[in-house]
From TrEMBL:
EC number: 1.5.5.1
Cofactor requirement: FAD; [4Fe-4S] cluster
Family annotation (Gene3D superfamilies): 3.30.70.20, 3.30.9.90
Recorded catalytic activity of this chain's protein: a ubiquinone + reduced [electron-transfer flavoprotein] = a ubiquinol + oxidized [electron-transfer flavoprotein] + H(+)
Keywords linked to the UniProt accession: 4Fe-4S, Electron transport, FAD, Flavoprotein, Iron, Iron-sulfur, Metal-binding, Oxidoreductase, Transport, Ubiquinone
UniProt cross-references to Pfam families, sorted A to Z: ETFQO_UQ-bd, Fer4_ETF_QO
The protein's name in its UniProt record: Electron transfer flavoprotein-ubiquinone oxidoreductase
């Protein structure tokens, strides 16, 4: 699921402290939006509105553009007045793990563990994950402490042979085993809570009513079964597998940005404070350079250009031939490309030196 978020300083007369809106999509598409009016008495006393737009990445139309959908949503008659005359302050985007119980991976690896959103502990019907993230962090910390206590004393690392060597010698000591964290999590209320709502999200594809069917099923779970169903629904495949050929759809015409309520992509990315060192190794690579044009462009009309919230990918024509241009400097590390690329040809890795967006208050 891909989310876009924006901070705005509205006109004071339009602020409704503590007002909270959660509009949802139509039955055929999973997702929704949020609009929070912050109380000026909290924080630094500023009057702010935080708004966001979340689109599930299991959509099938390759012409869908989440960023432009977000901008179009802000022009809705019931939403637009909040932003008219205001000042846009910040913008950001991130892929959210909302697969739920069925998508929880192996939680440990040598010397580390997955906790919180990285492990997929979001409770989808509640739209909450902070409580499960905190508890999983506590369990991981307890397991790490016990594992470190059991480690033997590491041998002293050898000093670098050359005095000009700046890098420290490689770590050669024992690695903690956090295996107990997995069993501790499975025995906690986190696992029980996620298991009880495991069928809510997959119900969007299991019923002909789409998102509305999910709401109906969520009501049955909450008031009747309480998560004690004898079955577990499947998501039915990965998000990238659901994208259909462009020939089955017509291009979507989105309204042009007006510069007051809706905005263009690049000016929004400028608000993220994104920066990467120019000479660092690329953090976005292609497994096969021929695939973007041969398959993604030919079959799906280049969906990378639309699902990326930062304008990283664009198809250029040089000497009569098309090629995919990767503007890695723009990347805000939402990881959507690694998830939604229909050919699974894009590989995102952590950038060198902590490059990326410099979010403030996001």
């Amino acid at each position: 699921m891909a989310g876009r978020q924006q901070h705005v300083r509205p006109l004071v007369s339009l602020v409704r402290p503590d007002s909270c809106w959660h509009p949802c999509f139509s039955f055929s598409r999973w997702g929704g939006s949020f609009l929070y009016h912050l109380d000026p008495s909290e924080g630094d006393g500023d009057t702010l509105v935080i708004t966001g737009y979340v689109v599930a990445l299991d959509y099938s139309n390759p012409y869908l553009n989440p960023f432009k959908m977000f901008q179009q949503w802000k022009t809705h008659p019931s939403i637009r007045p909040t932003f008219e005359g205001g000042e846009r302050l910040a913008y950001g985007a991130r892929a959210l793990n909302e697969g739920g119980f069925q998508s929880i991976p192996k939680l440990t690896f040598p010397g580390g563990a997955l906790v919180g959103c990285a492990a997929g502990f979001l409770n989808v019907p509640k739209i909450k994950g902070t409580h499960t993230a905190m508890k999983s962090g506590m369990l991981a910390a307890e397991s790490a402490f016990s594992a470190m206590q059991a480690l033997p004393e590491p041998a002293e690392a050898e000093e670098a042979a050359a005095e000009e060597e700046e890098m420290p010698p490689p770590f050669t000591g024992p690695v903690a085993d956090l295996g107990p964290y997995q069993s501790a999590l499975e025995g906690s209320w986190v696992y029980e809570e996620l298991h009880s709502v495991r069928n809510v999200r997959p119900a969007a594809h299991a019923t002909p009513l789409g998102m509305w069917g999910t709401f109906l099923y969520a009501g049955v779970v909450h008031y009747v079964t309480r998560g004690r169903e004898w079955f577990t629904l499947s998501h039915g495949g990965a998000d990238h597998e659901r994208l259909k050929p462009a020939s089955e759809f017509s291009p979507i015409e989105y309204p042009k940005p007006d510069g007051e309520v809706s905005f263009d992509l690049l000016s929004s990315v400028a608000l993220t404070g994104t920066n990467h060192e120019g000479n660092q190794p690329p953090h976005l690579t292609l497994k096969d350079d021929a695939v973007p044009v041969a398959r993604n462009l030919a079959v799906f009309d280049g969906p990378e250009q639309r699902f990326c919230p930062a304008g990283v990918y664009e198809y250029l024509e040089e000497e009569g031939e098309r090629r995919l241009q990767i503007n890695a400097q723009n990347c805000i590390h939402c990881k959507t490309c690694d998830i939604k690329c229909p050919s699974q040809n894009i590989d995102w890795v952590v950038p060198e030196g902590g490059g990326g967006p410099a979010y403030a208050g996001m």
